[in-house]
Amino acid sequence: MKVRYWEEQRLGVKPDRSWQDAAVRWLKETSHKRSHDKDVANLRWLHPFLGHLMLSQLTRDVVEKIGEKKAAQSSPSTANRTLALVRSILRRAKDDWGWVDHIPKVRLYREPKKRICFLSPDEARRLLNELPLHLRDMAQLALSTGLRQRNVSYLRWDQVDMSRRVAWIHPDEAKAGRAIGVPLNEDALDVLRRRLGRHPEYVFAYQGQPVARCSTRAWKQAVARAGIEPGFRWHDLRHTWASWHVQNGTPLQELMELGGWASYEMVLRYAHLAADHLRGAASRIDGTFLTHKQKPQLVRLS
What we know:
Layout: H1 2-10, H2 19-29, H3 36-50, H4 60-73, H5 76-95, H6 121-130, H7 133-145, H8 149-153, E1 160-161, E2 166-169, E3 180-183, H9 186-195, H10 217-225, H11 236-247, H12 252-259, H13 279-282
Antiparallel strand pairs: 1-2, 2-3
């Protein structure tokens, strides 16, 4: 201890800090994050691997083995969320707290781009008919407004003005951290009228409490009974809403505002569903290879 203190005071050697110290400080400083509970769950999973180590012992090999373990248990995308948390904590320990001078490079897995999963109107009707009443109303509002699950689950009556046909999501409730104005169409208003008087505070409640989780056994069973491909998630209702808008001519810029996306790039994933405006351009080369109709040949008469 004497030697270590002398090195710190005279030579400027930084005291060795543990991963546990870093994790605790991270949780204190990020307690405001919407993903705080997920961070806690990830850190609990990481504890058996890192809880006994000092930050100086976290090498690239140690981090990569953790990623391999997580990927084997779940998926590369889930492993990336865990690795990204480790990387964020290490970066803060180096850049903000000054606990270490060097940190290992954390390499994430390549995630394949997935197809957008959305329902046809007929599939949506079948699903709604199979859902329990409280989930059916919530799903109909999601399909009508594109609201995320948490915003639907915790929607309060003081966020709704039916006379003006609008609802709003406050900045601290929105994923992008910006307030969202939600115009209400007739389908959304039908749901709200049915929910009037059921709970004094929340629009949707089950046994007196907001429905915190929607991807339940009842949801999965309803998906199966409706004949929809297994794996259809609640969040895919938002993809369905966006896909319907694009297919019916809503410009992507308007869709970005309706959905509360932070950037234009987020809505470009739906652009391929609205190729109607390019039909004229595509027809300019009709007949170039004479594949659908043979053009008559001109014969010169002598």
